[in-house]
Design a protein that fits this description.
- With 307 residues, this protein is mainly α.
- It has a single domain (2-301), classed as Mitochondrial carrier domain (Mitochondrial carrier fold, Alpha/alpha barrel), CATH 1.50.40.
- It is built from 13 helices and no strands.
- Helix 10 (208-238) packs across helix 13 (271-301).
Length: 307
């Protein structure tokens, strides 16, 4: 029956391969461009830091704090990214399989990617709250939030839960839910361009640089449209440092405060580093994802299926 097939499509080797490939691709990409993510975090969170270009900020951090600061908090970020992308790719491809292959349109991709984004946010936000704090641990000019007492994701989750309450682990959930439009736009654009390219090649495999380019285009569009919300999300996760705002200030309050104090430019502080980091990371992620999934499917297809 159709309903039975639809139910089973969430638990297939194909969905699992997509999830593992997406998680592995994201880890490879983030590990490669992690220093750019450090620059982005520092520009977003340190209001006293001058808005220099990415290269100047990298040099400034290395000269003042040492090369190790560029990789501060990398392990928990990679752990969180692996879990987050596994959930996202699994949900996205599982839902796509549940729908008819004939309904693979841009609108359908946007809908499925949005649902996958919501599931991802609700399940993995605590991981990102902890690693945002770990990444800024001990940074000069940024007030610490009792995060000297933990160094790992697990310890951080327990510490925040016990000392600040369970709700703090979901700090920034509202902008995160609003930001599901970012990967939704990204995946919709990527899948749409990929379908057209594949169709134009009449079944031939696209070269690797095509996947890199499509991933870069998709992420550039998504990031440019949603950057102010990403800025607020980072501040909510770490805790904002605005003396004129209450500690529990929400998304709209922070956006209005930044606009009043810094103008529209304040909404886009650190965007150059964010664009450079996310575009390169997303492009490499999609390239690695396509290569890994293709390799695994090729191996599986050459083995007898055990029933």
């Amino acid at each position: 029956m159709g309903g039975g097939n639809n139910g089973r499509s969430l638990f297939t080797y194909e969905t699992l391969v997509h999830a593992i490939s997406g998680a592995a691709g994201s880890v490879v990409a983030m590990a490669t461009f992690f220093p750019l993510d450090t620059v982005r975090s520092r520009l977003q969170l340190e209001d006293s830091r001058e808005s220099k270009n990415t290269i100047m900020t990298l040099r400034d951090l290395v000269s003042k704090e040492g090369p190790h600061t560029l990789y501060r908090g990398m392990v928990p970020v990679l752990q969180s990214l692996c879990a987050s992308n596994f959930v996202y790719f699994y949900t996205f491809h599982g839902l796509k399989l549940m729908r008819s292959s004939r309904s693979q349109t841009a609108a359908n991709d946007l809908l499925v990617a949005t649902v996958a984004g919501v599931v991802n946010v609700l399940t993995t936000t605590p991981l990102w709250v902890v690693n945002t704090r770990l990444k800024m641990k001990g940074v000069n000019g940024v007030q610490e939030t009792n995060n000297n007492e933990y160094n790992t994701l697990y310890d951080g989750l327990l510490h925040i839960w016990k000392s600040e309450g369970l709700e703090k682990l979901w700090a920034g959930t509202l902008p995160s839910l609003m930001l599901v439009i970012n990967p939704a736009i990204q995946f919709m654009t990527y899948e749409s361009i990929k379908r057209r390219v594949t169709a134009s090649l009449q079944g031939a495999q696209p070269p690797a640089w095509i996947f890199f380019a499509i991933g870069a285009i998709a992420k550039t569009l998504a990031t440019t449209l949603t950057y102010p919300l990403q800025l607020v999300q980072t501040k909510l996760r770490h805790g904002h440092k605005y003396p004129n705002l209450p500690p529990n200030a929400g998304t709209i309050q922070i956006l209005c405060h930044i606009l009043k104090k810094q103008g529209i430019a304040g909404w886009y502080k650190g965007m150059e580093a964010k664009l450079l980091q996310t575009v390169l990371t997303a492009a490499l992620m999609f390239l690695a994802y396509e290569k890994i999934s293709r390799l695994v499917f090729r191996i599986l297809l050459h083995r007898p299926v055990l029933r």
